[in-house]
């Protein structure tokens, strides 16, 4: 195997494979030597991504299920929403991995090695990647690995941690045309806890127990939370657990480096996880598309936000500040968002695609007694 490549992608998760997929859409990259490095072979269904779009996307062929109606529940407000022109979509991890890697098999310029990456660094005009056994170089390295996870544990940061069960019932139980986006009715500690339910048929659904907190729960607490929710709110006494997943997403005020020189950070490592909600999939797609366009135009692939676009970072950090210090207001905030705004505007806002005028209209619907002090702490703290 050669030692130098045009591009090396470190990490074959959502960010790395999304970037590769975007590259494979363009003839520009057919004569570029691309190396993908990951310590795992990506043969398990280890996660699920959900997102919303107004039109078919790059991964439409592997959308496992889609919904155009969403339920929202809290103790103060509950409603069902039609979200047209948006469609809420689910992609399973194993389908995503297989889809991209199988397509990559048809490209002789794409190579994959299963090795653990130790570090990457700039050397003169190129970048070097060191694994346990080898050293590789490239014109550009696109890195999705967080080498120092402790950097994410900055004051005011939270973890979004979740456990999900795919449950199957003996009789038709679910409405597979409606997804539960958030259900805050459970009374648990920590208090920023909710469940979402994603039916994929009339007797099968993913039920996910989700917590925003500084630390993980004990393993058995997730199971207890799922059992109680399924019994109390889904009214199920008989069901079978077909599969389960567990994940942790940083909701961090940490200022992620975009990389420098010939190293470009992508995914969570490059700041593509929305700190206030944990949503990542669509931000990764936008970033990957921008990187590909820059490369094709012989521009730097370091795609930076404009100063104007950084306003969304202020919004996210303000909400994160409230969730961290006030601890029990997630239900109130999201209830107000959905009660006082059209769901399409909320989804657009969560995607960082609203205008300033639209954002101001949303802001005035939120509890000022919470947001003004938190915003001031972010601006001057």
Automatic annotation (TrEMBL):
<protein>
    <submittedName>
        <fullName>Lycopene cyclase</fullName>
    </submittedName>
</protein>
<dbReference type="Pfam" id="PF05834">
    <property type="entry name" value="Lycopene_cycl"/>
</dbReference>
<dbReference type="InterPro" id="IPR036188">
    <property type="entry name" value="FAD/NAD-bd_sf"/>
</dbReference>
């Amino acid at each position: 195997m050669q030692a130098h490549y045009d591009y090396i992608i470190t990490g074959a998760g959502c960010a790395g494979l999304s970037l590769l997929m975007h590259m494979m859409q363009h003839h520009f990259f057919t004569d570029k030597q691309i190396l993908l490095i990951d310590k795992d072979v990506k043969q398990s269904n280890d996660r699920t991504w959900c997102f919303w779009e107004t039109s078919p996307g790059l991964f439409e062929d592997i959308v496992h299920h889609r919904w155009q109606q969403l339920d929202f529940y809290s103790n103060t407000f509950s409603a069902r929403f039609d979200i047209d022109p948006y469609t809420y979509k689910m992609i399973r991890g194993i389908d995503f991995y297989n889809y991209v890697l199988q397509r990559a098999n048809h490209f002789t310029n794409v190579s994959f090695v299963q090795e653990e990456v130790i570090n990457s660094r700039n050397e003169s005009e190129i970048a070097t990647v060191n694994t346990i056994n080898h050293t590789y170089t490239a014109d550009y390295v696109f890195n999705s690995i967080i080498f120092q996870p402790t950097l994410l544990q900055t004051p005011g940061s939270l973890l979004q941690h979740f456990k999900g069960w795919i449950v199957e019932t003996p009789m038709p139980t679910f409405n597979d045309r409606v997804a539960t986006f958030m259900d805050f009715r459970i009374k648990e500690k920590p208090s920023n806890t909710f469940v979402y339910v994603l039916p994929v048929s009339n007797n099968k659904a993913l039920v996910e127990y989700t917590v925003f907190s500084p630390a993980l729960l004990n393993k058995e607490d997730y199971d207890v939370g799922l059992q109680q929710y399924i019994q109390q709110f889904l009214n199920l006494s008989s069901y079978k657990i077909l599969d389960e997943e567990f994940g942790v997403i940083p909701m961090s005020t940490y200022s992620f480096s975009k990389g420098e020189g010939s190293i470009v950070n992508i995914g969570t490592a490059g700041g593509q996880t929305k700190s206030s909600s944990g949503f990542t999939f669509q931000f990764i797609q936008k970033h990957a598309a921008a990187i590909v366009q820059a490369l094709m135009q012989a521009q730097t692939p370091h795609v930076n936000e404009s100063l104007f676009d950084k306003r969304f970072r202020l919004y996210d950090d303000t909400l994160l500040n409230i969730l961290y210090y006030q601890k029990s207001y997630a239900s109130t905030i999201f209830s107000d968002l959905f009660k006082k705004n059209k769901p399409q505007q909320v989804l657009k806002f969560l995607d960082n695609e609203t205008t300033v005028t639209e954002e101001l209209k949303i802001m005035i619907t939120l509890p000022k007694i919470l947001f003004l002090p938190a915003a001031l702490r972010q601006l001057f703290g």
